[in-house]
């Protein structure tokens, strides 16, 4: 006996989704242990540090979270003796904590810190001071003895003056440093420079969008760059603070070793002591490879294949964190010589009976091919109706960024829908990372057009293939994805409902509230102001809210500093005026992205009930 789609009983409750969705934030070898950062949804998303011994290293209420560049990253580091260095989420100071001891501050109150890098006992960080105008950023060395906590002059400034910095690193002899910097007029994936310095002189290497410098010895540095249109590894010989000859591209692959530099803690490769390199190759999904000294590469047999970070190396052992298409997110320790793979945390295998594998989808769009991942309704305890009786409803997911991408990962958040008989289509519209610079730049000047065209093309492709009920396709997204949701509803004719989480509704309003990290981001996506003001108005969903004629669910965090509540409330008021069915939910204490268990649970319950009302089914309890 078949059951209507959407009514299938499911073991994936909102509470289980919330409990299964901790975010992994880096990992490290610490003596005989492995430590990793992990969010705790039941504690409001607090970021703790745990050990492979089962111990929690960073106790409540402390939380390691940086706000540098607004999105943070690199908020903790650990020494071999078990000393933890971390950025406290509340005051953004750097603290030192001996195992079992109380944290003590290392930096003075005021500025924020992130991108911590501990090398041979020296602690580097990106420092951000938002009190002056213009804001000031620098790379600093922080004394581990706490002498700078009350005396800022004890901080050693390696460099200051550029708009933004990332990835500081010291040469093995400690005499030189390298880092990535860029100006406020560009985003780092558009242009970022690699700089070498001996403390007196500096050299800016001729790079396009440099990422992650790593010294292999005192005379050589590795980094990623994309002069050919894909981020690839390059080797640069150096003499003092000067480049010694041209850079050499190490390996040619139709994939990216790199990603949009939104946060400071990611690592896409690590050199091994014997000259080999462990690297991530991304083409939609990730592959972890070992690049031999002759440039040849072979794949590492590890389940991690989504947003993989190469966190640390120890001889032939490598720590990898990330997502997977076959397991939950986790941390893996891989011996690249023996091939042995150890699960450190998470990475519970997904049951294919409940978690459908994502199918890679490629559809023709008006701007070129559109990439997506499709998850079919799957439930081993329920029979689906015959195709001539009923086609399943689908929810189209639109990622934020927009310079970001999804990887077809397995997750309880996806199974929550598919196990109930609701398919999921996760779209990497034009402008997404993971497919090279040309695909990424497809959105330049076309935000609100290209992304909308692409998600509509993906939805039509699904319906035209007879996989989805064309009258029951909804669209959901957050932040920039919420913008695409609302812009698609303005276009009309494809989606029967929309769910916007902290979505952008007015470009001029967004421009006014954007942190300086993104101050010129919209100019590249839409056009410069004031010359393009008419385009800003014409493309904003708020301008054409009267064209929306399907139900809308709006969800917003009260403390969101990237897309403040005024955006969601503006479209709410417009929908009220035009008489469109809608619901608005404001979550106290939440920022840009929902972190607490209570919020995650409530949001999923509301979304399911909302789609049941719109699509005409009663969800099973």
The computed structural class is alpha+beta
Task: Work out the strand percent.
Answer: 25-35%
Share of residues in helices: 10-25%
**Which descriptor suits the 3D outline?**
globular
What average pLDDT do the residues reach? 95
**Which strand order does the major sheet show?**
29-30-32-31-33-34-35-36
**Gap between N and C termini, in Å?**
19 Å
Spans of at least 5 consecutive residues whose pLDDT stays below 50 are none
Instruction: Count up the helices.
Output: 10
Rg on CA atoms, Å:
24 Å
Total number of strands: 36
Please specify the SSE layout and strand pairing.
Elements: H1 14-19, E1 24-30, E2 33-40, E3 46-51, E4 76-78, E5 84-87, E6 94-97, E7 104-105, E8 112-119, E9 122-129, E10 136-142, E11 156-160, E12 164-170, E13 177-182, E14 193-197, E15 202-205, E16 211-217, E17 220-225, E18 232-239, E19 242-243, E20 248-249, E21 269-271, E22 277-283, E23 285-291, E24 297-299, E25 304-314, E26 317-324, E27 330-335, E28 341-346, E29 359-365, E30 368-375, E31 394-398, H2 412-418, E32 423-428, H3 437-440, H4 450-464, E33 473-478, H5 480-491, E34 497-501, H6 507-513, H7 521-525, H8 533-539, E35 552-557, H9 565-578, E36 582-587, H10 597-615
Parallel strand pairs: 31-32, 31-33, 33-34, 34-35, 35-36
Antiparallel strand pairs: 1-2, 2-3, 4-5, 5-6, 6-7, 8-9, 9-10, 10-11, 12-13, 13-14, 14-15, 16-17, 17-18, 18-19, 18-20, 21-22, 22-23, 23-24, 25-26, 26-27, 27-28, 29-30, 30-32
Write structural notes for this entry.
- By secondary structure, the protein is of the alpha+beta class.
- The strands form eight sheets. An eight-stranded mixed β-sheet has the order 29-30-32-31-33-34-35-36, sandwiched between helices. Strands 16, 17, 18, 19 and 20 form a five-stranded antiparallel β-sheet that branches.
- A hairpin with a 2-residue loop joins strand 25 and strand 26.
- Helix 4 (450-464) packs across helix 5 (480-491).
- The longest helix is centred in the last third of the chain and has 19 residues, at 597-615.
- The protein is globular, with a radius of gyration of 24 Å.
């Amino acid at each position: 006996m078949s059951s209507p789609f959407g009514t299938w009983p499911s073991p994936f409750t909102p509470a289980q989704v919330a409990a299964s969705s901790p975010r992994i934030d880096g990992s490290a070898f610490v003596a005989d242990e492995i430590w990793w950062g992990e969010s705790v949804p039941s504690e409001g998303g607090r970021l703790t540090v745990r050990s492979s011994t089962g111990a929690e290293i960073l106790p409540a209420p402390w939380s390691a979270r940086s706000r540098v560049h607004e999105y943070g990253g690199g908020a903790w580091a650990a020494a071999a003796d078990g000393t933890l260095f971390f950025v406290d989420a509340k005051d953004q100071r750097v603290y030192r904590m001996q195992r079992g001891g109380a944290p003590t501050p290392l930096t003075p109150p005021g500025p924020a810190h992130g991108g911590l890098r501990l090398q041979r006992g020296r602690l580097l960080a990106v420092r951000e001071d938002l009190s002056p105008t213009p804001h000031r950023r620098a790379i600093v060395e922080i004394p581990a003895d706490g002498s700078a906590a009350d005396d800022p002059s004890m901080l050693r400034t390696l460099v200051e003056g550029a708009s933004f910095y990332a990835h500081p690193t010291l040469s093995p002899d400690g005499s030189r440093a390298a880092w990535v910097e860029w100006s406020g007029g560009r985003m780092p994936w558009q242009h970022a420079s690699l700089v070498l310095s001996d403390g007196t002189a500096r050299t800016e290497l001729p790079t396009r969008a440099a990422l992650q410098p790593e010294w292999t010895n005192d005379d050589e540095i590795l980094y990623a760059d994309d002069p050919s249109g894909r981020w690839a590894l390059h080797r640069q010989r150096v003499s003092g603070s000067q480049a010694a000859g041209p850079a050499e591209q190490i390996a040619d692959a139709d994939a990216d070793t790199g990603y949009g530099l939104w946060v400071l803690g990611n690592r896409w490769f690590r050199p091994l002591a014997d000259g080999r390199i462990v690297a991530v190759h991304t083409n939609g999904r990730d592959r972890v490879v070992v690049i031999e000294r002759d440039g040849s590469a072979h794949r590492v047999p590890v389940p991690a294949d989504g947003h993989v970070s190469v966190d640390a190396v120890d001889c032939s052992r490598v720590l990898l964190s990330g997502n997977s298409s076959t397991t939950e997110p986790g941390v893996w320790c891989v011996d690249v010589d023996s091939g042995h793979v150890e699960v450190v945390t998470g990475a519970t295998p997904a049951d294919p009976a409940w978690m459908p594998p994502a199918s890679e989808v490629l559809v023709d769009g008006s701007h070129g091919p559109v990439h997506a991942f499709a998850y079919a309704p799957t439930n081993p305890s329920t029979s689906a109706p015959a195709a001539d009786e009923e086609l399943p409803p689908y929810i189209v997911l639109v990622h934020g960024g927009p310079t970001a991408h999804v990887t077809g990962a397995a997750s309880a958040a996806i199974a929550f829908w598919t196990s109930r008989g609701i398919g999921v289509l996760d779209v990497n519209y034009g402008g997404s990372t993971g497919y090279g610079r040309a695909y990424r730049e497809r959105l330049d000047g076309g935000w609100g057009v290209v992304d909308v065209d692409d998600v509509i093309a993906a939805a039509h492709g699904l319906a035209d293939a007879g996989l989805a009920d064309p009258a029951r396709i909804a669209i959901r997204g957050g932040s920039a994805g919420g913008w695409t949701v609302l812009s698609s509803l303005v276009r009309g004719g494809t989606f029967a409902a929309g769910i916007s989480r902290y979505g952008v509704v007015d470009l001029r309003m967004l421009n006014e509230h954007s942190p300086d990290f993104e101050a010129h981001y919209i100019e590249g996506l839409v056009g410069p102001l004031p010359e393009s003001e008419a385009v800003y108005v014409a493309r904003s969903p708020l301008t054409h809210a009267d064209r929306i004629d399907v139900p809308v669910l709006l969800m917003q965090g009260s403390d969101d500093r990237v897309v403040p509540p005024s955006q969601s409330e503006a479209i709410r008021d417009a929908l009220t005026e035009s008489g469109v069915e809608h619901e608005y939910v404001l979550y106290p204490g939440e920022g840009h992205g929902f972190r607490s268990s209570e919020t995650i649970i409530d949001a999923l319950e509301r979304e399911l009930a909302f789609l049941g009302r719109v699509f005409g089914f009663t969800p099973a309890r």
